[in-house]
Amino acid sequence: MTDKILTTRMDAHPSDSHTLSRYVATGGYQALAKALNEMSTDEIIEEVKTSNMRGRGGAGFPTGIKWGFLAPAEPRYLVVNCDESEPGTFNDRQLAERDPHQLLEGIIISSYALGVNHAFVYVRGEYAKSARRIQRAIDEAYEVGHLGADVRGSGFSLDVTVHLGGGAYICGEETALLNSLEGRRGEPRLKPPFPAVEGLYGKPTIVNNVESISNIPWITMNGGAAYAEIGPERSAGTKMLSISGHISNPGNHEIVMGTTWRELLYGLGGGIPDGRALKAWIPGGASSPWFVPEQHLDTIVSIDDVAANGSMIGAGAVVVMDETTNVVAVAHRIVRFFAHESCGQCTPCREGTSWMEAVLKRILDGNGRRSDIDLLLDISDNISPGLKWPPAMTTICPLGPSAVSPITSITRWFMPEIEAMLAGSEVGLG
Amino acid sequence: MTPAIRHWSRENQARVEAILGSYPERRSALMPLLYVASLEHDCVSEDAMREVAALTGISPVQVQSVASFYTMFKGEGVGDYVVSVCTSVACYLSEADVVLGAVEDAAGASSGETSEDGAVSVEHVECIGACGGAPAVQVNYETIEGLTPEAAAALIKWLVDTKPDVVLADEMQQLFGGRRSFDWGSVELEGAIRPVPAFGLLGSAGEGR
Questions:
Q1: Is A233 inside a domain boundary?
Q2: What is the pLDDT of residues A254-300, one digit of tens each?
Q3: pLDDT at res. A58
Q4: Looking at CA atoms only, how far is residue A272 from chain B in angstroms?
Q5: Which residues from A are below 8 Å from B169, CB to CB?
Q6: Which of A134, A359, B105, B142 is the most buried (most CB within 10 A)?
Q7: How far apart are CA A181 and CA A193, in angstroms?
Q8: What is the mean pLDDT of residues A366-383?
Q9: Which whole-number Å values give the CA distances from A109 to A30, A94, A203, A216, A301, in the listed order?
Q10: Angle at the Cα of A171 (from A119 to A71), degrees rounded to 5?
């Protein structure tokens, strides 16, 4: 059974896995040849549907189904989302820097299948190196005729443009990304219309994540059914997890989902440094509600299991906290992030995130009030009514509700610790 | 070429040409053009915004509205080296605040400020995607991972003393870094020449498409 798809080349050939020569020498661009010579565009889309691959950017929407929504108007666009900015994620960075041709072959096959003649890769501004590596792969591909007016003599034409962002987390949201790519402020658009109907320049557009597209060559080569067989049902394929924080083996790990968190954190992750105890972990990036050992250590790492336990696997960012962690300080750090990254369009998010940051800060500074817990939950409820998961929203996009996750997490699992901090402050006692 | 940038270097004019040719609609070129303009002017100055407005066919205030939305288009007064210290959640758990303090002390500038000699601008930033090698910093958007506070201070001293023309991630990582998020593979000889991300600006990658 296949247990790695995306990282085999970079593991085997660390010095040159990013080059065209190594890519071709290890079977690269055979999937493109197969797609162009042996498959109809409908057959490729069907294989992606059969694969049951769910989008790797966070929302987990099946990629093949998304492709099926693409409206017939022309021109159409493919936009690859390499704006990886969720605190804790760094797996797209590795895929882009270490195996950019795998991504590019995925882009070419996907564009061919979708009837796209101009694709864009939106790379976050801080990933200059990733952008350079992708661009070099593009340049190499033009030279050998994998891109340009007549891709490998097929009559299909494709240009790919790398677009560098300017430092704004919100541009990872697909409609904000499209606005940014159009030279506008990165403010999310109301949906519907969805990008598949009205996206870039108002034209039908598919926005897919780097990891999703990097899987397309393998799916094309080996078939959707083979991909669907890997891992548990509804969590098909492999997943890149970025593990960071208080963990002995931080880094990206490509796994087949279906293990337990205990196996992941104490096996691949190597456990908590210096034998300290695990206090909590964030299973899917700063936006996701936290997990705690007593409740979740023996639950399953899969998209649906994590969702059933009230959180999300998201883009695969696991952030581990040991027993020494001040959870209010971590919640403050995460809320501060969302306050900083709020685009400002929606009042509950713009105002709420800043107020929550201020309240958490005064608790940390020893000036908390007993009423602050209710205040935090009240602000949270105004951003995300009912404090449910998945969250209800009073905002255009999920950024605001994401800032609620650390609040609901610390009040759910660590209330005595917060109360102790309040009791320690004079205002709290008064 | 539009008269608005007739005074730009030939190199930068060529970059503008290539960028405008990469997009179906002119306005899409706005962000990459702002980066080229900041190479030309050393920052996104008022002149830079007026010139980019002329290139994209929108008003200068529209350009300003976009430029001010993002954090990487630096205005007047930015130093030669922008040192961005990540203090987001994973780096925070790895004592990034201490690294920030060491950088501020070594540079003689607090976060958000530039040292008196104009060499170093210090900023604390949100996640830069280097969590596996936390704590991490960037110098002109080139990443160094696994820094101790001492190494971070030494990095600043090295920047000020040697004033490298090009900042190379691999060189800085070798001199000052520690644990990385992942194996970086082969060494890169391309880096940043200004506090502008080194993409499509140095004549190899990114040109002509």
A1: no
A2: 999 999 999 999 999 999 999 999 999 999 999 999 999 999 999 99
A3: 83
A4: 13
A5: 129
A6: A134
A7: 18
A8: 96
A9: 11, 21, 20, 7, 30
A10: 45
Look at residue A17 and tell me whether its pLDDT is greater than 90: yes
CA distance A4 to A396: 37
A258 lies in which domain range? Answer: 238-322
* Residue A181 shares a structural domain with residue A270: no
**Residue at A340 is within a domain:** yes
Domain end among A178, A205, A228: A228
pLDDT in tens, A60-115: 899 999 999 999 999 999 999 999 999 999 999 999 999 999 999 999 999 999 99
Residues 6+ apart with CB under 8 A from A115: A41, A74, A76
Residue B77: how many CA atoms within 13 Å on its side-chain side? 7
Secondary structure letter of residue A189 according to DSSP: P
Using a CB-CB distance cutoff of 8 angstroms, which residues of chain B are in contact with residue A361? none
- Per residue in A151-207, pLDDT tens? 999 999 999 999 999 999 999 999 999 999 999 999 999 999 999 999 999 999 999
User: How many Å apart are CA B158 and CA B144, to the nearest integer?
Assistant: 14
Helix or strand holding residue A119 (H, E): strand A118-123
Q: How high is the ipTM of this complex?
A: 0.96
- CATH code, domain with A289: 3.10.20.600
B112: left (phi over 0), alpha (psi -120 to 50) or beta: left
pLDDT band at B98 (very low <50, low <70, confident <90, very high): very high
Tell me which chain A residues have a C-beta less than 8 angstroms from the C-beta of B127: 85-89, 169, 286, 337
What band does B2 get if pLDDT is binned at 50, 70 and 90?
confident
Residue showing tokens 């040409």: B17
Give tens-digit pLDDT for B150-159.
Answer: 999 999 999 9
The reply to whether A350 touches chain B by the CB within 8 Å rule is no
Is A1 a member of any domain? no
Strands A77-82 and A118-123: parallel
Residue A45 lies in a domain: yes
CA distance A318 to chain B (A): 10
Which residue, of A201, A228, A255, is where some domain finishes?
A228
CATH of span B81-176: 3.40.30.10
User: Which residue type occupies A368?
Assistant: G
> First and final CA of chain A: distance in angstroms?
63
Whether chain B has a CB inside 8 Å of the CB on A128: the answer is yes
Indicate if A198 and A222 belong to the same structural domain: yes
Q: Is A149 on the interface with B (CB under 8 A)?
A: no
A82 touches chain B (CB under 8 A): no
For A34-64, write each residue's pLDDT tens digit: 999 999 999 999 999 999 999 998 888 999 9
The reply to whether A248 and A338 lie within a common domain is: no
- CATH class (in words) of the domain with range B3-67: mainly alpha
My answer on whether A255 and A307 are in the same domain is: yes
Whole-number pLDDT of residue B3: 86
CATH 3.40.30.10 occupies which residues in chain B? 81-176
Together in a domain, A312 and A363: no
Ranges of CATH 1.10.10.1590 domains, chain B: 3-67
pLDDT value at B208 more than 70? no
- Whether residue A188 is found in the same domain as residue A257: no
In 3-state terms, what secondary structure has residue A331? helix
